[in-house]
Write a structure and sequence with these properties.
globular, 2% strand, mainly alpha, 472 residues, 21 helices, disordered N terminus, 3-stranded antiparallel beta sheet, single chain
Length: 472
């Protein structure tokens, strides 16, 4: 069995390979229909070099060649040269800051002959997958220690900072997907709970004025402290409910400052009582957490109003406060995207029959908003089937990860699954305004050679490692 797996394609996971081909085919068809309204040149050379679908066809050919290369290259190569590949990736990010061309305000691409371009950040995702897997699979790595945690996070921070300098916040945020891998490999869950709570407070600070948010945090802190008294539990519960109700009532009638002051005093008193009862940990976590949350709310609100540029504020408002946005300006893309998806109904308008697609109502239809083309032409059924393809692919990637004999292969597989999941979730979410518009493509489907090649290499290496899992 080992010999069979070392030669040919006998050990390839054909389910993942078939899903990959299906998604690439869907992407090609949708890119074709986006450009169909403008007509296509009759010359093959012009078709391949002057149209998006023609260029995507070239990218697909390159990807199939790269798949063959990943199948031929010895599986030990990726583990041996993981850090070298990661280093080359960082150098490419540094180089693009100096030699790259500016597109839509970001210096993220190398210009290539024939009107093509190369975005190094797409390949650095793959390189970081290798480096993270190589580090985590080292015998002395223990994610329960601070040193290992800082090293792992440092591997993520380095490319993120270089990408933010371009600036390309969307691609930088993708690297947060590696925390899924770190959680699987044993990073303490307390860190994730703190991060989730901080994220929630951060979003609340962007959505509302600071004082009501801080009042809400105080009420949560008071509830936690009050309900941890062991005596008179029923009376304390009733008193807490009355206090919360009174606070909400007076806050609603314009006494926010006084209500907040009363709650801060109450929080400190309850904290002092728990401290006296030798529950110092609970008192510190509750009071300290509310203080930290309040500082975060104020700093978030201040930074939003004083440091962000108007177009950056608009991007956040489109997600959290759409009523503040201009329907003909920053909100236009999302409105048109939702209209296109909704207009498809259950069965869709049919292939090449999307009126909003043909008339280019939705900007960036072949890249960031490719899913709205699927929604318009293929309807709910087609959109649902594409989502199912992604979900089955993600489930299969996790299955592949869990059946690996080698830690490096398992960790690499989880890294790939995390990146694809975040791209899939955010891209589809932003077409329906449930996620911020950060400009990341839908894997295998959106137009773009760098993205398609980057994801293809990820899948190809994963299939190669999995095919040799009994040899690792």
């Amino acid at each position: 069995m080992s010999r069979r797996r070392e030669s040919g394609l006998g050990g390839i996971d054909w389910i993942v390979f078939s899903l990959y081909l299906a998604l690439v085919a869907v992407g090609w068809l949708m890119i074709y229909t986006v450009g169909y309204g403008d007509g296509y040149p009759t010359s093959r050379i012009d078709f391949l070099t002057q149209t998006t679908v023609g260029k995507q066809t070239i990218f697909m050919g390159i990807c199939f060649l790269l798949l063959l290369v990943t199948f031929v290259v010895d599986w030990k190569f990726w583990r041996t040269f993981a850090y070298l590949i990661y280093g080359v990736g960082l150098v490419s990010l540094l180089g693009v800051l100096v030699l790259g061309k500016n597109i839509n305000g970001s210096t993220s691409w190398y210009a290539l002959p024939g009107g093509f371009s190369l975005q190094p950040s797409e390949f650095v995702k793959f390189a970081t997958c290798l480096a993270m897997a190589a580090f985590l699979s080292t015998y002395n790595t223990n994610l329960k220690t601070t040193q290992s945690q800082l090293t792992a996070i440092g591997l993520l921070i380095a490319p993120m900072l270089l990408i933010l300098l371009q600036p390309d916040a969307g691609s930088a945020l993708v690297f947060l997907s590696f925390f899924i891998l770190l959680f699987r490999e044993g990073m303490p869950p307390g860190s994730y709970i703190i991060a989730i709570l901080m994220g929630a407070v951060f979003i609340l600070g962007l959505s509302f004025e600071p004082l009501p948010v801080i009042l809400g945090l105080c009420l949560i802190g008071i509830s936690v402290l009050a309900l941890n008294f062991k005596q008179y539990r029923n009376y304390i519960l009733i008193g807490t409910l009355v206090w919360i109700g009174a606070s909400i009532f007076f806050n609603y009638h314009g006494f926010t400052t006084y209500v907040l002051l009363a709650n801060l005093i109450g929080l400190l008193i309850l904290g002092a009582l728990h401290w006296r009862n030798r529950q110092e940990r609970l008192a510190l976590l509750s009071v300290g957490g509310i203080v930290a949350g309040s500082i975060l709310v104020f700093s978030t609100n201040y930074a939003f109003n004083n440091f962000l540029r108007p177009h950056q504020q608009d991007r956040i408002n489109v997600w959290l406060n759409p009523e503040k946005c201009d329907p003909q300006g920053s909100l236009y893309n999302v409105l048109q995207s939702k209209l296109a998806i909704g207009s498809g109904g259950i069965q869709g308008k049919g292939f090449l029959q999307g009126t909003m697609t043909k008339l280019n109502y939705v900007p960036e239809q072949s890249t960031d908003f490719i899913f709205c083309t699927i929604g318009e032409e293929q309807g709910f059924i087609g959109s649902f089937m594409v989502i199912v393809l992604f979900l089955v692919l993600l489930q299969r990637l996790v299955t592949i990860a869990e059946r690996q004999k080698a830690a490096f292969s398992r960790q690499y597989a989880y890294g790939v699954a995390g990146i694809i999941f975040l791209h899939f979730f955010v891209n589809i979410g932003m077409t329906m305004s449930i996620m911020p518009i950060i400009g990341i493509p839908l894997p295998f489907v959106s137009y773009g050679g760098s993205s398609l090649i980057g994801f293809t290499i990820m899948i190809g290496v994963l299939l190669k490692l999995d095919a040799n899992r009994y040899l690792l």
